[in-house]
Amino acid sequence: MEVTAVVPMKGNSERVPGKNLRPIAGRPFFEWVLEALMDARRVDHVFVDTDSEKIADEVTARFPDVGIHIRPVELHGDFVPMHDIVAHLASVLPGDAFLQTHATNPLLTSATIEKAIEAYEADEIAEAIAFLIGGNAASIRGAGLGSDGRALVRLSTE
Fold first, then answer.
1. Would you list the domain boundaries of the chain?
2. Superfamily of domain 3-133
3. CA angle in degrees (0–180, nearest 5) for 104-66-17
4. Model-level pTM?
């Protein structure tokens, strides 16, 4: 199974301006998460999805092996559901399985990521964990709810 990790990072945040670039323990928020994802041996690709050139430049300077995906204009803004963003990413990025996490998750470790992937492969992972499967025609196990309260539905690029 080819696993692609995606980290969405908007350039603007209503509540905490510039939060993805803000330092925590001397490093930008995103650096902690990207380091954990890059260290996870079961993650084949890591991409940052952004609408910000500044974020793209900062990520590329620190992590040249992390792919940058510039978010299409129709997915910009504060009210775009994460489900729509991940559905788009699953339709354009390589991979059989997609793992999504946020840059503001600095305590995430590569060991936790590995355990989640192993549980997913063993069919032991809870439906509430957002883990998309199926390459470019993604589907979601179960009938969980997204963070916006909408039911997670089968996604397809066909």
1. 3-133
2. Spore Coat Polysaccharide Biosynthesis Protein SpsA; Chain A (3.90.550.10)
3. 30
4. 0.78
